[in-house]
Amino acid sequence: MTSLMSVDAQILQALRSASSGAVSGSEMSQKLGISRAAIWARIEELRKLGYDIEASPHRGYRLLSAPDVLHADDLSWRLEKGQMIGRDIRVFEETTSTSDVIDKLARDGVKEGAVVFAEAQTNGRGRLGRKWMSPARKGLWFSLLLRPNLSPQSATQLTVASATALRRAIEMATGLKPEIKWPNDILISGKKVAGILTELSAELDRIKYVLVGIGVDVNLDPGDFPSELTALTTSLKIELGKPVVRAELATVILRELDRDYSRVLVGGFAAVADEWEKYCTTLGQRLIIRHGDRHVSGCAESLAEDGALLLRTDHGHLERIVGGDVTLEK
Ligand code: BTN
């Protein structure tokens, strides 16, 4: 697990917000309540992690560049105080899947709002049992734990809310114009850039917990994708033509997820659904939905109150779709 003492996060914060670009050792020492020698020792540690910090006897310390790494305390520091999602952040250098880690935390009784990031996953999983490629430091691979007071039937609302928040966050952080493909793929120019895997542990009438796993292809280059995926997938870096600072994007995503999760909990799903429908390119399209051996085709009409997709089948029935593999009918 990557650990960064919160004093390091405070030093980084002071360096980032220094109005003249530099901050003196004595100013930081006063602000943080530790000696100048202790500040110097921490600066040395930050340099070892890849932070390029200039030290000049007259001007003080100046942050020249920061490595694109995720640190729990740095992420926490960036989040709005009082935000529920992200109140407990853990970052792993490598794990099998953040879903495995968060599931264990959930079973151990950890409070909702916990988020687990991994710089790399060796066994990343997608929907429908697919593999999810998670190369080191190229994307955001994370899972969050929710314990909503909702019926299991309403869990789809969380999937819809997560997709809405993720789409909006990517737009806010990059200026790109992502779309949603039902139920929760995020596309840019018709190619997938992010996906969400919602896993539920429930009793008959009560959700015990929900695990929301999110994968965002942030700084992958074209060569990082296997050739069979290049026509279907993209990354934010490819679309923007420049890399994205993952910690900044992660902060915006967690903030927007917190916002939409709160909206669902107070009965505001209708507003979330309106936003989802506005950006969902699946609506109005003719689709084939495959579920194992079974498939149904029809026209995607709208979103039901519980988040299910309402499909007008070729026989004229309105069918509720809550899962499956969705493809556009050619
Ligand atoms: C999909 O579109 O199929 C969903 C992809 C979800 C991938 C994320 S990456 C973090 C979390 N851990 C996993 O193993 N999967 C999810």
Question: Can you put this structure into words, describing what you see?
Answer:
32% of the residues lie in helices and 28% in strands. The protein is elongated and about 80 Å long. A hairpin with a 4-residue loop joins β9 and β10 (207-216). The mean pLDDT is 92. The chain is an alpha+beta fold and 330 residues long. A seven-stranded mixed β-sheet has the order 4-5-6-10-9-8-7. The chain has a five-stranded antiparallel β-sheet with strand order 14-13-12-11-15, with no helix packed on it. A three-stranded antiparallel β-sheet has the order 1-3-2. α6 (155-174) crosses α9 (269-279). It is built from nine helices and 15 strands. Biotin binds next to α5, β6, β9 and β10.
Can you give me a brief rundown of this structure?
This protein has 330 residues and is an alpha+beta fold. It is built from nine helices and 15 strands.
Keyword list:
330 residues; seven-stranded mixed beta sheet; five-stranded antiparallel beta sheet; 15 strands; 32% helix; elongated
